[in-house]
Amino acid sequence: VLLHRLANFQRVWSLPPNENTGKEVTALAWRPDGKILAFGLTDTKRIVLCDVEKPESLHSFSVDSSITYMHWMEVTEESSVLTSFYNAEDESNLLLPKLPALPKNYSTTAKIFSEEKSDEIMKLLGDVRLNALVLGGSSGFIEIYAYGMFKIATVTGVAGSCRGLCLSSDLKSLSVITEIRDSSDSEAEITYFQASKLDTSLLSSYLPEVTRMARKFTHISTLLQYIKLSLTCMCEAWEEILMQMDSRLTKFVQEKNTTTSVQDEFMQLLLWGKASLELQALLMNQLTVKGLKKLGQSIESSYSSIQKLVISHLQSGSEALLYHLSELKGMALWKQKYESLGLDASGIEEAITAVGSFILKANELLQVIDSSMKNFKAFFRWLYVAMLRMSEDHVLPELNKMTQKDITFVADFLTEHFNEAPELYNRKGKYFNVERVGQYLKDEDDDLVSPPNTEGNQWFNFLKNSTHLKESPLLFPYYPEKSLHFVKKQMEGVIDRCLQKPADVIGKSVHQAVCMSLYKTSQSEDSTPQLFKLPFLWNDKTSNIHYVLFTILENSISKIHILRRHTDTSRSVSNGILAVDFGNFLNNSINESSDSRCYSCLDAHFYDDETVTVVLKESAEQEGKERVLAQLPLSSIYTDEDQDREFIWDSTKRLDEQSGEICTCTVVLENQWRVLENMKAQYVSVNGIRKVSCVLSSNLRHVRVFEMDVEDDGEVEEEEEEETT
What we know:
This protein is of the alpha+beta class. 36% of the residues lie in helices and 25% in strands.
């Protein structure tokens, strides 16, 4: 994906294909405020939301089908309820502490959460006004994502692969153009669907509720991502060096030829101050005094980083998650407003419980880190002195002091951590599990190697003996055998399930109002790559009309047709369909005599609500015939005298079979056109707000940018940018 500035074609950034996101981009869409670009990748079936300033993925998610078209719209409906919601400060900002930024020194941290200002998250959430990213894919796949992040509808019942779609800004109607291929037929049929009342009663009548619910969902999505990244940072802070102790001891067991256990060898060293020759060789030759020091420092720095991440990031992230889920539960209990949207309180209750279990597991990890740090410190201090004595080095007097309490502490540590576990060898290829923290961070479904010892814990005993508390919904379930990763995965699964239901409920409420078969794609057309564009859909926000632009081949001329339908499907707009003929407007340019010049339309695009931009070529294609860029005002097509010539649609036939009966309107363009010299123009893309058009050549190598509303006398030379092959 390459992003250029329009004014001087300076490249802003480029995002090369990579393994994680994917390699084949099939669709792009800008968020209505222009701050975020979404693109769909077909090989990985992922959607990536990217910041306009720098090429970073702010958010990405997977979909079930490869995406062929994307459309990002903004709701323009106004109502007092909505306005008060838009203007109200988000309470969570007042009640929740700001999420601490993730440390920058880890490779995986997405920059979004590591900036000091977590406005990055706000940038991703964008304006409170509801906007929706509509995705269309192969085999009738259509989904609507609120704020581009959270799925609020899965639309079913549309056949074929999506070539274009458009959701009206009042959410009342969804228009889709699909391509239906019969296996036997080499030519595909292009069909227009209009889903009426995207059950108007649902999305549009419950707009304030949908907006609120979607806003909560997006908060929850970003928090889940934050927790996931915090956990990834923790895994990076835990280093492989911490495994050295286990692997060295395992090797020692395999090589030694005495019958005493490792635990006894260390105990003898502790009690008599004398080590067997084998243990001496292990300590002095393999571990070494220097190595022991390094290991001690690594363990301390690594554990304290993990501890910080748990306290400041994991816990604050999960508490914020708990807050938003509890708010969502409150919404779900307000049945008259939210029940019909599919919010389900019992599902959210399960999600809250799952977050509770995750918080418990994070606390357990903190206790394990705490005790491990204490134990390792005492053990290493004692072992350091013992090794200095073996090497007959001078031992500083302050290191030499060892109280009875310290000795007991080390003895307990040896008893607990240095016992051999042969069954561990089959599982992990080692006999020891001295290091207890890593097992919590492993992304495996296995149970913990050494779960915490809960014997003698008064609370556990109390729970065991109490019949009422065992099943109490107020207690979070605790999974003593499972790792933190496992509990997190489980929590994500439960939250996803509880937030999935509204999408199904809203999607099922969409009914098809009209389905028209437009035309067959001709073989010749398919040989040129169908890049984008025609058929093209446009939604006129002020008068709530959907327009469809497409071309039908008549006598080897591609004639442009305009179909218009009201978004409120009960109302019909007169002159639902019109064909447009371009009169001979180049008459003074090439030679005077030929009146019968005809133009084929190559591409067309709505410039604004009143104008269509078209690329034309002369049908009598001779050398030196130039392509033309023209502006076609709708006012010159939809005139009052057409009212009586209503086209009667025969629904049993395709539109191209009835093209003879469609009213044709001949338009003579006065001065709103320009010959495109030395360029085989094929495609056009426009932006009426910025008053520019970009024309792309048929070999997709040349782009020209035109300013559309420039007075003739001071005409600005257009920029021309050539890409080399």
